[in-house]
Write a structure and sequence with these properties.
- The complex is a heterodimer.
- Chain A has helices at about 10-30, 35-60, 60-70, 75-85, 125-130, 140-155, 170-175, 180-190, 205-210, 230-240, 245-255, 255-260, 280-300, 305-315, 330-335, and strands at about 85-90, 105-110, 115-120, 160-165, 195-205, 220, 225-230, 270, 320.
- By secondary structure, chain A is of the alpha/beta class.
- Chain A folds into 2 domains: about 10-25 and about 35-60; about 65-315, 2-enoyl-CoA Hydratase, Chain A, domain 1 (Alpha-Beta Complex).
- In chain A, strand 2 (about 105-110) and strand 3 form a beta hairpin.
- Chain B has one domain (about 60-285): 2-enoyl-CoA Hydratase, Chain A, domain 1 (Alpha-Beta Complex).
- Chain B is globular.
- In chain B, strands 4, 6, 7, 8, 9, 10, 11 and 12 form an 8-stranded mixed beta sheet that branches. A 3-stranded antiparallel beta sheet of chain B has the order 1-2-3.
- The longest helix of chain B has 18 residues, at about 175-195.
- Classes of the chains: A alpha/beta, B alpha/beta.
- At the A-B interface, helix 7, helix 8, helix 9, helix 10 and helix 14 of A face strand 5, helix 5, helix 6, helix 7 and strand 11 of B.
């Protein structure tokens, strides 16, 4: 694991490094001072670390959340697959053009129960990131996702979708093969899928490329993730004609998990390990796993038609508008009101 | 010399501030310079010709009301969903407040939102219809547009009649952020319900259809038609150019390119649009 640190993490990491050194000295007995002084110094530093972490993370700006969501050590889809599920088998390809490594999927078990798991997958190294297009799927990725979701429906398996993408891939080949159509069909087919769908934004929820696997019964978001109509940089490029003003755009867009929760888009926020999911993937995965189990149990009772109706109701009400009182002359208004 | 002579024919006046709708045709008084053939043409000739260049067939934007008049039987359009307004849920503001931007766009474009919806008759057949007005904030889709599109499909479902949507949009509206994104799911979900009544949904793609509109209901038509040379795609050409850092090929993301790549059913010139729609409704309805 690389030692990459975000700017605002640095004071904490430095302090932790000091603490680690102190602990090493205590363990090897190379300290000059008597052991009991060292012990109290260690305890003091531990307290300071905890306090500093709390201070830094209590008041994160939206831009800092975006940075955390993109932390190179952040757990990705396949990390959660490994930690939460058993019996995983990855399934490849859209049966039409290619296999897209930017979107992975397959069957696995959650507490023994078979489920379909899919999601965008980023790369850990530059080489892997190029292979996986930094988690930006092409049409064949969305068509694979659709194929797998239909497969899950046929065998009555719930779908769990992990969202983690800056957006759908913007490129010549993606356009040639119908990026718009691939995403659009996912939206419609998910709306009608007769099995439970839970989507979780685990990092970046960039625009239509994220929503394409987000038409769900329950939307969960990790604490330090974001979900937006447009990435903050692209928004800044359009609004302020300067893509470096992402920080300002992030504020304007209110794109964090907390914002989405307050706006009623998200059913539950999942707490990450202190300092972000990359600091302790096991704890984050455990929190997420518990939430997934709970929501799946609740959704099971709805039945195929109930699930589709539940999903419709969830999305139908999104989008606040005001409407004048219906005029009595219009027969149609009476119907819709 | 000849060019100079021609220049003296008309008096050059400063171009008025135009809504984006008119950006394709540079208007100078009574004359228009066509972007397609660069000819100077008489504005009235273009108007009479459904905003299509009489010389080279270049399609200029057609205002939304004229679009509806073009395809519907005279006097049959009954507009619905009037007076829907955004609540500006984020109290969004960039160089201008979003609410002010909406008001300014309404004043400049003469429409109070980017989408007009209602019921009408096409060759005698009742249809649920809607059309974008690109002149209103680039035809962007916020909650009002998403709600109206959704209701087009809901009315078509209730009445068991065909649905027709004309799209011309830059995509989801940034100023309503995540709510705009959710309109893609909302409209697609309404469409999923509409499929059960087995009536046709015809999607007509106009210049331009991109982003969140293209990646939802616009590409979900049972039949997808496009006007000639319309820009259609998911990512805008500038975004793609910035990503891959190369020039895009000639004709990329135009209707003809999409037809060639199997993404649309047919390209229909504006003057044939009504007949084609009527023909398809006859075959499927």
């Amino acid at each position: 694991m690389s030692t990459y640190a975000l700017e605002f993490e640095k004071p904490l990491l430095e302090l932790e490094q000091k603490l680690a050194e102190l602990k090493r000295s205590a363990a090897t007995g190379t300290a000059l001072e008597p052991g009991d002084t060292l012990d109290s110094e260690i305890r003091r530093l531990e307290k300071r670390c905890a306090k500093l972490q709390q201070e830094i993370f209590a008041e994160l700006s939206r831009w800092q959340v975006v940075q955390l969501s993109r932390h190179p050590n952040r757990p990705y889809t396949l990390d959660y697959v490994q930690r939460i599920f058993t019996d995983w088998i990855e399934l490849h390809g859209d049966r039409a053009f290619a296999d897209d490594p930017a979107l992975v999927g397959g069957f696995a078990r959650l507490d023994g129960e078979p489920v379909m798991v899919l999601g965008q997958q980023k790369g850990r190294s530059t080489k892997e990131n190029i292979l996986r297009s930094f988690g930006m799927p092409r049409p064949e990725g969305y068509r694979k996702a659709l194929r797998l979701m239909k497969l899950a429906e046929r065998f009555d398996r719930p779908v769990i979708a992990f969202i983690d993408t800056p957006g759908a891939y913007p490129g010549i080949d993606a356009e040639e093969r119908g990026q718009s159509e691939a995403i659009a069909v996912c939206l419609e087919e998910m709306a009608g899928l007769e099995v439970p769908i839970i989507s979780v934004v685990i990092g970046e929820g960039g625009s239509g490329g994220a929503l394409a696997i987000g038409v769900c019964n329950r939307l969960l978001m990790l604490q330090y993730s974001w979900y937006s109509v447009i990435s903050p940089e692209s928004c800044a490029a359009i609004l302020y004609r300067d893509s470096s003003k992402g920080e300002k755009a992030a504020e304007a867009l209110r794109l964090t998990a907390r914002d989405a929760y307050e706006m009623g888009i998200v059913e539950e926020l999942i707490e990450e390990s202190p300092g972000g999911a990359h600091r302790d993937p096991a704890v984050t995965a455990q929190n997420l796993g518990l939430a997934l189990r709970r929501h799946l149990r609740e959704l099971r009772d709805l039945g195929p038609k109930g699930l589709v109706d539940d999903r419709y109701a969830k999305f139908r009400k999104l989008g606040p508008v005001t409407e004048p009182r219906p005029e009595p002359a219009s027969p149609l208004r009476r119907e819709t009101d | 010399m000849l060019r100079n002579g021609a220049m003296a024919w008309y008096h050059k006046v400063p171009a008025p501030k135009l809504p984006p709708e008119a950006r394709k045709s540079r208007m100078e008084g009574l004359w228009i310079k066509c972007d397609g053939c660069s000819e100077i043409i008489y504005k009235q000739d273009v108007e009479k010709n459904l905003e299509v260049c009489p010389r080279c067939d270049e399609h200029f934007p057609l205002p939304v009301r004229r679009r509806l008049d073009l395809v519907l039987d005279p006097g049959t359009f009954d507009e619905c969903d009037l007076g829907l307004e955004t609540t500006d849920p984020l109290e969004f503001s960039d160089s201008k407040k979003y609410k002010d931007r909406v008001k300014a766009s309404a004043r400049a474009s003469g429409e109070n939102e980017a989408f007009v919806s209602g019921l009408g008759r096409l060759a005698g057949r009742e249809v649920s219809i809607g059309a974008f007005h690109y002149g209103f904030m680039g035809g962007s889709m916020g909650s009002v547009v998403g709600e109206k599109v959704t209701r087009v499909f809901e009315r078509a479902t209730e009445r068991r009649i065909p649905a027709i949507v004309f799209s011309a949009s830059g995509g989801a509206r940034m100023q309503e952020a995540i709510f705009s994104l959710m309109q893609m799911a909302k409209s697609a979900a309404a469409l999923a319900r509409f499929r059960r009544v087995r009536q046709p949904y015809i999607s007509v793609l106009l210049d331009p259809t991109t982003g969140g509109v293209s990646a939802s209901f616009a590409f979900l038509g049972d039949i997808i038609l496009a006007e000639p040379k319309a820009l259609i795609g998911f990512a805008g050409p500038r975004v793609i150019e910035q990503t891959i850092r190369q020039k895009l090929p000639e004709g990329f993301q135009r209707s003809e390119f999409l037809l060639q790549h199997g993404m649309i059913d047919a390209i229909v010139p504006r003057r044939e649009l009504r007949d084609r729609l009527s023909q398809i409704l006859g075959l499927l309805g």
